C-alpha cells in the first residue's frame, strides 16, 4: 500500500534529484553535527532491521513527514526552523510503499538526540536516573525503540495523540514517486 509523504530539501538537493532521478541523503549536508551522528547511526541500524538494507553507498536516510501536528498534511512553509532564513527550499510531496519507510514519533526522537532515557512517565524517568545517575548510550539505547510505538501516550508526559507529529525515514525517493513540488524560502 502506498502512502503520501512530504520532505523538505534544499534547492541544491532538489537540483541533484532532478539530474539523477534519485534523492538520497548526502552525508556532507546532514541536518546534524558530528555530535549527533550516534543517533543517526542508531536510526539507520533500526531501518536495516525493520525495513531492510539501504542501497549501496547509502548510510543515512532521507527524512520526511507522515503526519504533522496530528493531521495527515504537509508542513506549513510559513513556519521557521527548516533552514537559515532566506534559504531556498523545496517541499516535495511523494508516494511511497509502506514497507519502504520507518515511522517514528518526532517528539520522542529528540530524547534519542539528547542521548537520554525515553521513559513512559515521570516516575519511570526518576527511577531510571536514580539507579543510573550518569548513564551511557548502552544504558539508554534500549528505551529508544519506544519512538516506534506510535500509540504510546502518557497524559501530562507525552504530546497529546491529536497533536502528534510523525516522521518517516526512507533510504531514497525516486522521481517517479513525486506528486508535487513547491519552492519556498525559509522563514
Can you describe this structure in just a few lines?
The protein is an alpha+beta fold and 187 residues long. Helices cover 27% and strands 25% of the residues.
Could you characterize what this model shows?
- By secondary structure, the protein is an alpha+beta fold.
- 27% of the residues lie in helices and 25% in strands.
- It has five helices and eight strands, in the order E-H-E-H-E-E-E-H-H-H-E-E-E.
- The strands form three sheets. It has a three-stranded antiparallel beta sheet with strand order 1-4-8. Strands 3-6-5 form a three-stranded antiparallel beta sheet.
- The protein is globular.
- It starts with a strand and ends with a strand.
Number of strands: 8
Strand order of the largest sheet: 1-4-8
Largest sheet: 3 strands, antiparallel
Beta-strand percentage range: 25-35%
How many individual helices?
Answer: 5
Mean pLDDT: 91
Measured between the Cα atoms of the first and last residue, the distance is 35 Å
Quick one: overall form? globular
Structural class: alpha+beta
Radius of gyration: 17 Å
Can you tell me the residue ranges where pLDDT is under 50 for at least 5 consecutive residues?
none
The residue fraction in helices comes out at 25-40%
Order of helices and strands: EHEHEEEHHHEEE
Amino acid at each position: 500500500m502506498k502512502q503520501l509523504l512530504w520532505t523538505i530539501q534544499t534547492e541544491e538537493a532538489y537540483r541533484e534529484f532532478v539530474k539523477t532521478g534519485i534523492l538520497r541523503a548526502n552525508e556532507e549536508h546532514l541536518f546534524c553535527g558530528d555530535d549527533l551522528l550516534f543517533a543517526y547511526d542508531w536510526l539507520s541500524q533500526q531501518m536495516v532491521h525493520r525495513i531492510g538494507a539501504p542501497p549501496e553507498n547509502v548510510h543515512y536516510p532521507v527524512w520526511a513527514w507522515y503526519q504533522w501536528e496530528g493531521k495527515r498534511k504537509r508542513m506549513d512553509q510559513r513556519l521557521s526552523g527548516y533552514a537559515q532564513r532566506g534559504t531556498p527550499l523545496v517541499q516535495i510531496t511523494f508516494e511511497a510503499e509502506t514497507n519502504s519507510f520507518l515511522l517514528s514519533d518526532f517528539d520522542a526522537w529528540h530524547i534519542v538526540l539528547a542521548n537520554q532515557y525515553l521513559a513512559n512517565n515521570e516516575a519511570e524517568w526518576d527511577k531510571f536516573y536514580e539507579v543510573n545517575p550518569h548513564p551511557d548510550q548502552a544504558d539508554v539505547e534500549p528505551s529508544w525503540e519506544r519512538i516506534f510505538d506510535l500509540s504510546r501516550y502518557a497524559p501530562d508526559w507525552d504530546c497529546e495523540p491529536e497533536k502528534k507529529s510523525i516522521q518517516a525515514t526512507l533510504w531514497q525517493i525516486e522521481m517517479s514517486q513525486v506528486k508535487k513540488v513547491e519552492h519556498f524560502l525559509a522563514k
